[in-house]
Amino acid sequence: MGANATDLYFSHSQGITNVKLKYLDESLRQKFKYDAQAAAEAERQQFQEDAAYQRELATQLVAQVVKAAREARKAARTSDNSLEDPISDRSLLGKPGPAIDVEKWLGAKPALKGKAVLVVFWAPWSIPCQKAIPGLNALQKAFEDKLTVVGVTSDSQEEVEKMAGPKLEFASGIDTKGKLSAAAAATSVPFVLFLDSKGIVRYQGHPSAVDPKNLENLLPKPQG
Predict the structure, then answer these.
(1) Would you state the CATH architecture of domain 104-218?
(2) Which of 3, 148, 150, 189 might form a disulfide with 32, Cβ 3.0–4.6 angstroms?
(3) Average pLDDT for 190-209
């Protein structure tokens, strides 16, 4: 059927095969113009190409495995009920939240055991915080049997009491050294941290995402 620098190709009763020219007798090698040096160079080139192909194939297989594992990890981190998903190991999502420990409570210390907690980092001078307070008041009233809203500010009690905007109708604490806000990675206000009844962080970010519908999805469902 044909020949190249290294092989002779022929058909037979069971199909097509090949044989190395260097293994044939001298008359056949001369007939097909066998050149030992050219054949050796062709085989060397073919070996290099085969090795490069195998390396590329291995690289592609590793890349596919890594991609599949990465996609599986991403799929495991998200759900219909999540308000956001972590993209960094430093995220608190899915991890135990910080202890709700403040320097001073403005009023009675809230009962947190067995309830979900919405920690609100805020400042009395912040207009966005003042705008968010009525909605947070409403959440505390609507879900008081399942949820405790806790406001935390690094400003003084005097500054809180002087605020002209709407008053907090939920527990409030003073954290002048900002230890709790640092533990929660709160870098702006208003900022909320939602912890489920087991203390696991399920949401961190702006309070606008925590509306009654989303909160209902985050809170435990009635049994039975």
Answers:
(1) 3-Layer(aba) Sandwich (3.40)
(2) 3
(3) 95
Task: Report residue 204 as tokens.
Answer: 């961190």
Look at residues 131, 120, 144, 123 and name the one whose alpha carbon lies nearest to residue 205.
120
Please indicate, yes or no, whether the overall pTM of this predicted structure exceeds 0.90.
no
Q: Return the structure tokens found at 223.
A: 């049994």
Mean pLDDT of the region 90-96: 91
Sheet of strand 191-195, all strands in order from the earlier edge strand to the far edge:
104-105, 171-174, 147-153, 116-121, 191-195, 201-205
The β-bridge relationship of strands 147-153 and 15-20 is unpaired
- Ranges in the chain annotated CATH 3.40.30.10: 104-218
